[in-house]
Amino acid sequence: MKSICVYCGSKGGTNPVYREAAIDLADYIVDQGLRLINGGGNIGIMGVMADRVLARGGDCVGVIPLGLREKEVAHYGMTELITVPDMHSRKLCMVNLSDAFIALPGGFGTLDELFETLTWSQLHLHRKPIGLLNVNNFFDHLVGMMDHMVDEGFLKADARDLMMVADTVSGLFHLLNAPSTPPEAKWS
After folding, report:
1. Domain 3-175 classified CATH 3.30.750.24?
2. What are 92-108's pLDDT values in tens digits?
């Protein structure tokens, strides 16, 4: 693993524990010599992570749609800032640049990126691990909903298992780095 994509909020949340988790994750990424891939913004948890990685001498590549860049939310201090035409292009670019994915707490945009990446994995379009960092039990209801989808016959258990969940950075990376034999990807 060389690059890790982190989907996270463009807002900071109301509890400082989310900012602290973003800093812990950023530190771990730098300590492991990984490159951070994110949405290219300078705001919220996304900006906190990028600032920390860059302050510690790490590499951070942001992918931002032109419309958001024009609204002046782009982080111009990134190691590399890639501008794409739209949100769909952003997600595709981030998936192509990354070897694994982590979601931190966030809003609709975070969930959109997470679930598109999961759907592409379910469809065998990539073989890259995906995890939730369940900070402060933020994702408990979401995890419960995925389990409910399995129970009600709308999601296969093996598809549900594509989403790894841990409440610590080291625990999540242990899961992401575990050997697996997912089906061959149709593209990556």
Report:
1. no
2. 999 999 999 999 999 99
Residue ranges per domain, the chain? Answer: 3-175
Which pTM was predicted? 0.93
Quickly list DSSP for the chain.
--EEEEE--SS--SSHHHHHHHHHHHHHHHHTTPEEEE--BSSHHHHHHHHHHHHTT--EEEEEEHHHHHTT-B-TTSSEEEEESSHHHHHHHHHHH-SEEEE-S--HHHHHHHHHHHHHHHTTS----EEEE-GGGTTHHHHHHHHHHHHTTSS-HHHHTTEEEESSHHHHHHHHTS---PPPPS--
Contact 127, 121 (CB under 8 A): yes
| pLDDT value at residue 188 | 46
